[in-house]
Specification:
Strand 6 and strand 7 form a beta hairpin. By secondary structure, this protein is an alpha/beta fold. It has one domain: Vaccinia Virus protein VP39 (Rossmann fold, 3-Layer(aba) Sandwich).
Length: 202
């Protein structure tokens, strides 16, 4: 498949917000769930320095945040945002150790309303967050939040059997229009979840 991505191309997070209840969160059921291979595939190409200041937009139930926090060390920190309070509660539950240690902060907000300090992040990423490249206002907010040497990674995954050919170029072109510089892009390899990724600098 080539051309622009459509809403039908997006794979939802492994857990739908409607399927998560307050009972699940309070009982610790979420923290015991394994991280799916699909999320591992999505995070795999992202280069994460141990001391990076990381922002994830659209963090869902916190699977990717868990993988990133495992790679952070001294000086590193992470802010995970999502517009859904239910998802933020799930992220906090899954990553309670990282939240308590203050390695991870979770915040229920859209990117434009998250009070992001300009130049405050070394790494910004999102998985299946179309607004990153489809909404210029959101893209510009993320651009402003990047540190001078910072990187943005936009990752898109598709349903099984779909072809991601050309989607990386489409996403790259839209990010370039708002001021990002595309450094690399590509599609996932055989055996991985179909999709693509784009890496940008400010």
């Amino acid at each position: 498949m080539t051309g622009d991505a459509t809403s039908e191309d997006f794979v939802p997070r492994d857990i739908n917000p409607r399927d998560i209840t307050e009972r699940d969160i309070s009982s610790g059921d979420l923290s015991s769930r394994e991280i799916s291979q699909r999320i591992r595939d999505a995070v795999a190409p992202i280069r994460i320095a141990p001391n990076a200041r990381v922002l994830e937009i659209g963090c869902g139930d916190g699977m990717a945040a868990a993988l990133v926090c495992e790679q952070l060390g001294e000086g590193g920190s992470m802010l995970a945002i999502d517009r859904s309070p239910v998802m933020i509660a799930a992220t906090g539950e899954r990553n309670d150790v990282h939240v308590l240690s203050k390695l991870l902060e979770v915040r229920a907000a859209r990117a434009q309303r998250a009070s992001l300090e300009p130049g405050s992040f070394d790494l910004v990423f999102g998985i299946n967050v179309r607004n990153m490249w489809d909404d210029p206002a959101t893209a510009k907010t993320l651009l402003a939040s990047l540190a001078p040497e910072g990187r943005l990674w936009a990752v898109l995954q598709l349903p099984p059997g779909k072809d991601a050919t050309g989607l990386d170029a489409t996403i790259a072109g839209r990010l370039e229009k708002v001021g990002f510089t595309v450094l690399s892009k590509g599609v996932f390899g055989e055996g991985q979840t179909p999709g693509c990724w784009v890496e940008c600098s400010a």
